[in-house]
Write a structure and sequence with these properties.
Pfam families: NfeD. By secondary structure, the protein is of the alpha+beta class. The chain contains 3 helices and 5 strands, in the order H-H-H-E-E-E-E-E.
């Protein structure tokens, strides 16, 4: 039984697609698209072996050259989700008990926190709004 070249290209594309799913390497997906393009050249345009390999190489290389930088740029621009105490930095709080360089209490994100003034010479009175600049252990540093 003689199998046409386009079918071999599709088998190769499927194998590359499986590899993509298993390894999560996007380059394999781009090579799979190149193999599909070579299958199209073989099946619809009766392209010879050289034309098929050239189309595979050109399409795969072009996809890798164009898509990878775009994907890397998007990956680098992804906003980082702040969690835990990092999410509290920069938030506003209300003073519940006078806060100075030695301590006090604030209401931050619906919870009561111990707090200390960033500037030891500064004091914040009950009801004032303060900004949380850092968290040290279980104490919010405010200004």
């Amino acid at each position: 039984m003689d199998i046409d070249a386009w079918l071999w290209w599709l088998i190769g594309a499927a194998a590359l697609g499986i590899g993509l799913v298993i390894t999560a390497m996007p380059e394999l997906g781009m090579l799979a698209v190149g193999a599909v393009a070579a299958a199209v050249v073989s099946g619809f345009f009766d392209g010879g072996a050289v034309a098929q390999v050239v189309v595979f190489a050109v399409v795969s290389t072009a996809l890798i050259a164009v898509v990878r930088p775009i994907a890397n740029r998007h990956r680098a621009q992804r906003p980082q989700l702040a969690t835990g105490v990092d999410a509290l930095k920069g938030r506003q709080a209300v003073v519940l008990e006078r806060v100075d360089g030695s301590g006090g209490r604030i209401k931050l994100a619906g919870e009561v926190w111990s707090a200390r003034a960033l500037d030891a010479d500064r004091a914040y009175e009950v009801g004032q709004e303060v900004d949380v600049v850092d968290i040290e252990g279980a104490t919010a540093i405010v200004m």
